[in-house]
Amino acid sequence: MSKKTIGRRTTLGLLGAGLVAAPFIRPSYGQAAWPEQTSVPEILKGSGEVRIATFGGLMQEVQQKAYFEPFEKITGIKVRAFPGSDATKVKAMVETGNVEWDMAQLSRGSIMNLQKRGDYFEKIDYDIVDPGVEAQYRFEYGLEMLVWAQVLAYRTDAFKGAVPSGWADFWDTRKFPGDRAMFGTNSGGWPEMEFALMAAGVPADKLYPIDIDKALASYSKIKKDVFKWWDTGAVPIQLLTDREVTMTTVWNGRMAALQAAGVPAAVSWNQGLLKRDAWGIPKGAKNKVNAMKFVAYSTMAIPQARVCLGIPYGSVNAKSNEYIPTERLAVLPSAPGIKKQLVNYNYDWWIDNREAVIPKFNKWLLS
Amino acid sequence: MSEVVQPASLALAVSRPKTAPFDWRRAVPLLLAAPLLVYMLVFYALPVAAMLLRSVNDPSWTLANYAILFEDVVFQKTFWITINTSVTVTLGCLILGYPVAMGLVRAKSMAPFILVIILLPFWTSVLVRSYAWMVLLGRHGLVNEALIALGMIERPIRILNTPLATQIAMIHILLPYMILPIANALRQIDPSLIRAASGLGATPFMTFRQVILPLSMSGMAAGTLLTFVLALGFYITPAMVGGPRDITLSMLIAQQVDQLNWAYAATLSAVLLATALAILAMARKLPGVGNAFKTSMR
């Protein structure tokens, strides 16, 4: 996942991916025939252009082939993609009246976090959105368009065959020795309080509302072993590759490339967090109508399925599965066997509480 | 002092009655600098002012953000880490840079070659250099492998992602800023003074301590100031190679921007700017330092 926030770090992350991971990041498209969308409702057709901010990197490469190019062909609307999507940039654009993006790939959390401070996003026109898009992915100011997971990953050569599963094992440095890395707050990250709670034995369905103090107390037990609080998806991949850590948290899409390169590493889906990316349309976007059309098109079954074939992330459209081969379906976070091991990330709780969590986390980190 | 009129200004006052036409030649330097001044005003001073203004007027006029500083433990610790890192790095640069500057000045035909070696890292991006340090300092990096091969350690030691890694990488990046002003000052020293010192029986060490060192003070001051002020604002390097607790002030600012607390981010930026300015102002009061920038510009 190239979930990104601040520009500098985006550059950093992109360069990181380029320098550290470039030799082995290869999109898996081309291996199987991708389904083609041959027609769209007349209402999605148009003219002009739509300017889309993405997280860049491999993700944008996949998006280009999965739905940017087909959308241009089938609707007559030109797509211009910009890497470096960032909610803070949306804030600056809307405040200065210089809105350079018609839509941006963000998360429900960052969209709603900004929206609660003012009017920064357009409401989604759900009249034209495909009925196959499940209700849980719809919200007033955005539409979720990508399902991914934040999970435990480990070096398979580090523990003499023992297989860690879940956060109690991650916390157990006697049974699974070696340094750890976890997602920090540096790049506007959202600390993995859920993992800390599950390590302390809190059941997955009792995580929210998060008991911040309890989570920090649990974090304290692993603090000395966490040698990096990572801030961009390339970092944990690099740490695993270079054997800097034996276990880390990762965005699942990044792991496929690592494994394809032959690094002895694996993910443990158990107790991972199921997260989503969302499209948001900045208030006052020049090509707002085209952006709505793209939001509707890109969440249809076939465009969603094409993304799943390019990068191991899941679809928000229930009908996508018909277009994805079974063996591919089995490695996506949306696969039933995997999804049931994951915990649904509660964006609503985080939207309300992030401001309280991060200072407390920082204080704990520096104490 | 006020009654002692300098002859030059007296002459000027006499030769320029108030009714004299404006002397355009006097305006030439200003006119030459005007395009840059306007550019800096529009693209630097105004945006910085607008950003700093956010610290007191977002959403309404208040000093509340500055009041928070006194209670914000995270800010205080981060500020201390930033100062501490900057001092360590500046000292490191001074200790490592001074001998190099001396070598650079003494090397005759090799001087251009040495200068290129000093400047080479200058032309490489900070990001690339930070990645290079990750390769070198890693658990299975060059340094650890070498130490193991030499039998000095048995198992890899942790260098990457520690404050030490931040300091090593920052010193590497900032060394040219220390070396060049010192070399400049050393070059100004009249060689006959050194000959005179040894002629009067001074050992090389005494010559260094009593002649060279005092005379290069202005270069050291310039290098120290430059290095320290630049170190205050470091961001990428500590973020990439630093330890889990190496949070610098600029990292905290980025965090606040990300969390949409732009007013507080502006407040922290004002603190960083004020710290840099205060250090410059204090340094000017030190004897011999006031000329530092003049000397280094010669």
Task: Characterize the structure shown.
The complex is a heterodimer of chains A (367) and B (298). Chain A is an alpha/beta fold and 367 residues long. Chain A has 2 domains: 29-147 and 276-343, D-Maltodextrin-Binding Protein, domain 2, CATH 3.40.190; 149-275 and 344-366, 3-Layer(aba) Sandwich (D-Maltodextrin-Binding Protein, domain 2), CATH 3.40.190. Helix content of chain A is 38%, strand content 17%. Chain A has 14 helices and 10 strands. In chain A, strands 1, 2, 3, 4, 5, 6, 7, 8, 9 and 10 form a 10-stranded mixed sheet that branches. In chain A, β1 (49-54), α2 and β2 form a beta-alpha-beta unit. In chain A, α1 runs parallel beside α8 and α4 packs across α14. The two termini of chain A are 31 Å apart. The longest helix of chain B has 34 residues, at 24-57. Chain B has 15 helices and no strands. Chain B has a single domain (64-297), classed as Orthogonal Bundle (MetI-like fold). Helix content of chain B is 74%, strand content 0%. By secondary structure, chain B is mainly alpha-helical. Chain B is globular, with a radius of gyration of 25 Å. The chains are: A alpha/beta (367), B mainly alpha (298). The interface between A and B is large, with 40 and 33 residues.
Would you kindly provide a brief summary of this structure?
The complex is a heterodimer of chains A (367) and B (298). By secondary structure, chain A is α/β, with parallel strands linked by helices.
**What fraction strand of chain A?**
15-25%
Residues in helices of chain A, as a percent range? 25-40%
Low-pLDDT ranges of chain B: 1-14
In angstroms, what separates the terminal alpha carbons of chain A?
31 Å
Low-confidence stretches of chain A: 1-30
Following the backbone from N to C, one meets helices and strands of chain B in this order, namely HHHHHHHHHHHHHHH
Average pLDDT number of chain A: 89
The CATH superfamily of chain B turns out to be MetI-like
| Percentage of β-strand residues of chain B | under 5%
> What sort of overall outline of chain B do the alpha carbons produce when their principal axes are compared?
globular
Q: State the order of secondary-structure elements of chain A, H for helix, E for strand.
A: HEHEHEHEEHEHHEHEHEHHHHEH
Overall 3D geometry of chain A? Answer: globular
